[in-house]
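Ticket reopened. Same input as before:
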Amino acid sequence: MARSTGKDAQALFHSLRSAYAATPTTLKIIDLYVGFAVFTALIQVVYMAIVGSFPFNSFLSGVLSCVGTAVLAVCLRIQVNKDNKEFKDLPPERAFADFVLCNLVLHLVIMNFLG
Amino acid sequence: MHLKKNRTIFSRRLDSPVVATNGGSVIKAKSRWQIGPHGTRSFSFIAVERLALPAHTLSPRSRSLATLTDDPHQLFKYDLNPDVSQVLFFWISISALLTSLDGKCYYRNGQESITISGAYFGDFDLPRRWDLPSDFRLSPICCSRPFQTRGRILRQISSFLLLFNFSLEEAYEALRTFEVLGIEKTAELSKAICKSVLGTLESSSSTPKDLFHALGVNGILKCSSKEETFEDQTSKTDLHLSDAEGTFRSIKALSQSDGRWRYSSNNPESSTFAAGIALEALSGVVSLASSEIDQFMIGAVKNDIVKLFDSIEKYDDGTFYFDEKLVNMREQQGPLATTSSVVRGLTAFSSVITESLNLPGDKILGIAKFFLGIGIPGDTKNFFDQVDLLACLENNRQVKVNTVLGSHAPPLTVTLVRAFSSSARDNSIIENQELKFDPQDAVYFLDDLPASFDVGEYIFVFKMLVQDSEQQTVYATGTLTQVPIYVTGLIKIENAKIAVLDSDLGSVETQKKLDLAGESTVSVSANHLQKLRLSFQMSTPLGNAFKPHQAFLRLRHETKVEHTFVVGSSGKKFEITLDFLGLVEKFFYLSGRYDIQLTVGDAVMENSLLREIGYVELDLPEPPENASRPPPQPVDPYTRYGPKAEITHIFRAPEKRPPEELSLAFLVLTILPLFGFIIGLLRLGVNLKNFPTSAVPATFAVIFHLGIAAVLLLYVLFWLKLDLFTTLKTLCFLGVFLMVVGHRTLSHLASASAKLKSA
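Engineering reply: fixed in the latest deploy. New output:
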């Protein structure tokens, strides 16, 4: 049975990879961006775990900036995805403009909170 | 006072300035050098009339004076409304100047005439009432009499005069004080003042007030100016005030029904001080008048004076004074200034009217007592008021046994009506003894006191009668004067003993004699079961029992806790017993050494004593738990407010920071994902193909990217050094710009992709 699960898992992974290869490049860019943001957040958490959370506001602002920008990127991906019936009429440039604006506002707040 | 009748040559309203008067008639003026009774010398107030005279006939001195008056505007330049006071000031000043320069006057054509201006109210319409300034004074100068010098205030006066920064008014007051008190003025003082006086007199820009004070000072100091330039010497020139009636009436019109006066027609407030001033002014007017003032008017003024006396206030000890009723006067004059002004006015007025003023004698006496009773006031001005008033009263000779400044009394009989002890008011010891007069010392004395006069406090009642009946109208005597007298003597204290008794049996354990007159001390010891008894006897020199005002016993512990007890008496014997059993709690259970102090004192006892008798060692039981603590003794004030213990501030320990290398390492680690992102992008085959190539959209696209970069740069700056407000402000501008540009770019892109899709 273990072998079959192992094989199933591999098969699943392969199908996932091949399916993913079919996604448009723009979406892949966005996915990459999200991954980058999350990874940065993780590194900050590790740092905080090592040295303690003394300037807690700084830690929070750092982590939340990463998380916030990842969230916004996810929203962008949803809106830009052509397969998504809900946002069919929304031009992707508009979505991108929203993304940029929201990011700017987020980062203003983050900078203020950073201290 | 003999006045010539002359017609008035100026009227109230003239259409042209009077330079040449109608026909140049001369008003005879007489300068008075009365050597009156009692050696007084008084200036009379002379009014002058101007004649039209060619200027070159005038001497330099009179020319300067004449120029002073040449210009009608100059005369009144200090006040647009010429008022009587200013005119009078000027006249008085001129007259005083003339008289102080030994009466030399200018004359013309062999006649006695004066060239100084008259009142010409030329271009001005004379108001119907005149304003009286509050410090208008005309005072005669009286002879002085030796008086005990009061060092301090006189030194103060002379020192401040010597400092040469005095005003003429202060100089005048000071010099008058000196004159009344008979004090010599130092030479350099006189010189300095004279210099200032002459400077004021010669300058043409002095105010009439300055001139007035200058001439007052001049009259006292007799500064003579070397430029005596009047042509001829005459001792009699007649000068007077025309239209005195009108002036008199106008001043009188300012009076109120209760005897006080208003300051001016505009000011409805009235004051007693102004009444004094007004009376002086009226007396000046009367003396200057060319014709007799209507007697009816004078009678009216006398009525006012009587009414004024109704408003006099008094203290309980029989002193009278005038004071202002209202408190919101512009300058609040104290009772001193008010009373002295009123008396000055009264004396001036009584000296000019023909019949005498009947003033209540006891009130004048009360005023004199008030002024004598206030001692030496601290202020120079008050001192001047006091001395001036006493001089005026002296001059009018209206005071009692010794006249106010100590001059001789007329022959009197002084009777000691009664003398009684203050405690037994009904029995008088001496009755109706006449005192004999010792002409050498000018003192009345009583020869022999009865032998039964013991020590104690007595009250002597005196009565004075003037022997000569005709002088009774001149002098006012007090009715019955009471004088408290203390008869003192040596009180005998004997048989002083201190003993410690056992409380149960009352037997004496230790007994020691005290020598209260000497210096020896005793020491006893006791515990809380015993009693301490102190006893002594007191008697007067005549053997009577004596009860002192104070008889205290005080016990003081080493810790400075004190307890005081009153020594009781019965007849001649004084005794106090301290029962320590009952006093244990009062003594706060403090054992140890107590110093004993005895105090016996009285006003009539010449040998009062306050003495440390010795000490007692007291043994008291232990205090129980809830015993009261002795009250805290007063601390040395310097230690109470001295520096306290230092407080060291403990700062918050700073948080532990990670080592710098670790932080830097993680900084690098955090930047790494960014590179990973870029590498991933490149692997995906990111391209810029969709970037617009044509010019305009390309620039917009570029600017769009730059805009975003600028915003991010702004954020970095915000974190580094900017504050939120500037950031927001800049962000506004940048944001709007970015919106516009971004919209352009993205819409262009959208249209391009739409075209691509459709195509």
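Residues 25-51 of chain A form the longest helix (27 residues). Chain A touches chain B at residues 25, 28-29, 32-33, 35-37, 39-40, 43-44, 46-47, 50-52, 54, 91-94, 96-97, 100, 104, 107-108, 111-112, 114 (CB under 8 Å). Please confirm and we'll close it.
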